[in-house]
Q: What sequence folds into this?
């Protein structure tokens, strides 16, 4: 039987108590004896364990959200690396910036989930006191995680360090400096008290290296305000690197050795993504299972595949397939910068192989029905225009017959939704669910490859350009290993200290972490969002490209509902400048 961290069905009572406790201020209700042991202050070990698991459930609900299918796109489009495809709607103001306002559903959802993390973490911390440091450490990690997102994306935000027991409507904004003090205290505590990797209660439970990785990113953000923090960021990344617990994947491994692929691709295929499955880069893998196999194994209906992969199923001659990652919806598409510019001069980089950035495909429908008889292979006659694009039969400069196995000839407009180069990290096909509403696949949340990028950034900020180049070359040694062997040129892909700039490191993050990192957060914390939008480079329909960005859009608007609820004598929660 498969083992996984079953978090959904264990935690419903916890969320119910939280919602009930926030719904009424009736004195009688508050004084009633609880009907279960999930009382807010209960420190019984099993209760605390379930409440800690509830924080993992909130993480799954946040990034597995399907109520607005474009939510994941909000953190990628309107940046340097991605543009709109077949959008769902909630993400549109994140690239059509003139429409970004306090009533946007993506803004509200992230804000609400962050404060759900915080309130639930606060209640755990209060309940355990000094009696259960590991539970307190895990709760503090998630509180820090939530506050880091909040201050990165909104700036000054309300600071809550005690749990909400009755409805409260007078919150004001605390300075980022005040919030950062709590984040640092939480992560220092977590890094001290959490278990080492491989020794936590379950493989995807929070360990001390997850706290260190998050702390490195936090210190890099804080270093933009006070450069003294850059050394702290380097120290956190170095602690992970020198622990000896991780190794960059540079050779093929796992269950797909008999199929085409490469070492980088192997890391992102289900069944290969966990440490127990051979992934020596995994720091935090959020484990997901089919509900039909593990009760509560999937939370909501994760949309990653449908966001990142094109809707090739709209072509006749195509069927959903594991080799193409299953059925996508083409919610976003890579920018020209990400598809082409960032790879210039890097021929042979494994991260840009067709296994990792899929650029070409062939018709794969095996057969067709003609006069009630199955005919193999599938074929049809089409027109081709002077530029080589598909048109209706008879409408082009010539007609051709296409069949199973032939390279696809796209329509001119297909690059907006149906086919374009796409990262394969979120591919996953379930033959029992060909439509594929949910992606049931582990999530790579933190990876050792990023640790080197974080340290390179910290070293760059301290003017240690040689050290930064050394870290980037660790990634390049993996990325160019095969090409160097084939060519006999051991210098391929190597970088020099003179190459090191923050833009170079942001480019390298895009190459290494495309579709893994929250690109918007990265660009905001480095104060590069405005500059990097200009690199996007796409020309196309006005409703698909980034427009209207103003300086105040670096920060998001505080949800209007929060502004309206928190008004203390007219001096309550203030909106970020520029938003109405």
A:
């Amino acid at each position: 039987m498969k083992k996984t961290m079953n978090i959904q069905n264990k935690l419903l009572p916890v969320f119910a108590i939280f919602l009930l406790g926030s719904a009424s201020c009736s004195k009688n209700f508050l004084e009633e004896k609880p009907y279960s042991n999930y009382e807010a202050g209960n420190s019984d070990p099993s209760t605390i364990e379930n409440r800690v698991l509830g924080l993992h459930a909130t993480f799954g609900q946040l990034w597995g959200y399907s109520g607005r299918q474009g939510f994941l796109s909000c953190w990628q489009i309107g940046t340097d690396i991605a543009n709109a495809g077949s959008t769902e709607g909630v993400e549109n103001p994140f690239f059509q910036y003139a429409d970004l306002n306090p009533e946007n559903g993506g803004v509200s959802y992230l804000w609400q989930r962050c404060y759900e993390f915080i309130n639930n973490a606060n209640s755990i911390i209060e309940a355990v006191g000094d009696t259960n440091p590991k539970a307190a450490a895990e709760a503090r990690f998630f509180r820090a995680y939530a506050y880091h997102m909040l201050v990165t994306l909104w700036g000054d935000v309300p600071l809550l360090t005690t749990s909400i027991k009755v409805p409260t409507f007078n919150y004001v904004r605390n300075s980022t400096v005040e919030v950062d003090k709590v984040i640092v205290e939480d992560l220092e505590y977590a890094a001290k008290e959490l278990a080492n990797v491989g020794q936590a209660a379950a493989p995807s439970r929070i360990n001390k290296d997850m706290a260190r990785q998050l702390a490195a990113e936090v210190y890099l953000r804080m270093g933009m305000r006070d450069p003294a923090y850059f050394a702290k960021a380097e120290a956190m990344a170095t602690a992970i690197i020198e622990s000896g617990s991780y190794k960059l994947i540079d050779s093929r491994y796992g269950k797909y050795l008999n199929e085409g692929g490469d070492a980088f691709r192997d890391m992102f295929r289900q069944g290969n993504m966990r440490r127990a499955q051979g992934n020596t880069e995994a720091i935090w893998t959020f484990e997901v299972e089919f509900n039909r196999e593990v009760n509560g194994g999937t939370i909501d209906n994760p949309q990653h595949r449908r966001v990142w992969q094109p809707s090739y199923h709209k072509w006749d001659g195509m069927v959903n397939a594991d080799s193409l990652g299953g059925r996508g919806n083409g919610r976003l598409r890579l920018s020209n910068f990400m598809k082409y510019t960032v790879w210039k001069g890097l021929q042979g980089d494994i991260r840009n192989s067709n296994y990792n950035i899929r650029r070409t495909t062939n018709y794969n429908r095996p057969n067709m029905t003609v006069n009630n008889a199955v005919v193999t292979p599938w074929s049809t006659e089409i027109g081709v225009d002077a530029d080589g694009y598909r048109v209706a039969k008879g409408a082009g400069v010539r007609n051709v017959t296409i069949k199973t196995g032939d390279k696809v000839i796209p329509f001119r407009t297909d690059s907006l939704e149906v086919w374009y180069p796409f990262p394969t990290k979120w591919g996953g096909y379930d033959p029992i669910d060909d439509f594929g509403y949910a992606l049931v696949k582990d999530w790579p949340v933190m990876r050792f490859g990023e640790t080197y990028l974080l340290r390179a950034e910290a070293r760059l900020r301290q003017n240690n350009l040689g050290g930064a180049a050394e870290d980037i070359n660790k990634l390049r040694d993996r990325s160019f290993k095969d090409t160097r062997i084939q060519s006999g040129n051991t210098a391929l892909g190597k970088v020099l200290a003179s190459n090191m700039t923050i833009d170079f490191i942001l480019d390298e993050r895009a190459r290494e972490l495309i579709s893994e990192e929250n690109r918007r957060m990265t660009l905001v914390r480095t104060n590069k969002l405005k500059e990097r939008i200009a690199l996007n480079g796409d020309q196309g329909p006005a409703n698909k490209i980034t427009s209207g960005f103003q300086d105040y859009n670096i920060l998001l608007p505080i949800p209007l509902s929060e502004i309206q609820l928190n008004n203390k004598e007219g001096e309550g929660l203030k909106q970020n400048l520029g938003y109405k």
Summary: The radius of gyration is 25 Å.
